[in-house]
Design a protein that fits this description.
Number of domains: 1
Distance between the termini: 22 Å
Number of helices: 4
Largest sheet: 5 strands, mixed
Strand content: 35-45%
CATH class: Alpha Beta
CATH topology: STM4215-like
Number of strands: 5
Order of helices and strands: HEHEEHHEE
CATH superfamily: Phage tail protein-like
Strand order of the largest sheet: 1-2-3-5-4
Structural class: alpha+beta
CATH architecture: 2-Layer Sandwich
Radius of gyration: 18 Å
């Protein structure tokens, strides 16, 4: 199966179905939480990162490419002001321990290879309300077919 671009909906649906987070959202919601703070945790934000197509040729007016796409899952945990960080760090560890095997080795229908975890890092950007965050980066491969000259 092929896809023209990375589709996050099946990834979000898989994470939501697992019940790991109080809520799962996208980039627009993360910007709002960063500005205003959040109520309840843990919460997750699934966002696209990048796409690297590797064209394999044109046949019958269709450009074929193998695409490696990167996406990220950012987990925000409990307000640090209430617990001096201990509970927040514990939440991050617990959720990540379930998130990684949930996505690693799985792939949506359009994928040509399973999801692979690439790295994780602390989110140091401005988060109101003392939230602490962790970003996990993943890759996913899929085939792209685009009709040329349309």
């Amino acid at each position: 199966m092929s896809a023209p671009v990375l589709h996050l909906a099946p990834i979000i649906a898989r994470i939501e179905a697992a019940g790991l987070y109080r809520s799962v959202a996208g980039a627009r919601d993360m910007a709002r939480v960063a500005r205003e703070g959040a109520v309840g945790s843990p919460i997750a934000f699934v966002m696209p990162g990048s796409e690297e197509p590797r064209p394999s040729g044109v046949a019958g007016g269709v450009q074929h490419s193998a695409v490696t796409a990167r996406f990220m899952v950012i987990t925000l945990a409990e307000d640090l002001r209430r617990d001096a960080g201990g509970r927040a760090l514990s939440q991050l560890e617990e959720v990540r321990a379930q998130l990684l095997p949930l996505l690693e080795g799985w792939g949506p229908d359009y994928a040509s290879a399973p999801v692979a975890h690439q790295r994780g890092q602390l989110v140091t950007g401005p988060l109101r309300g003392g939230l602490i965050g962790w970003q996990d980066d993943f890759t996913l491969r899929f085939r792209r077919r685009i009709t040329t000259g349309a």
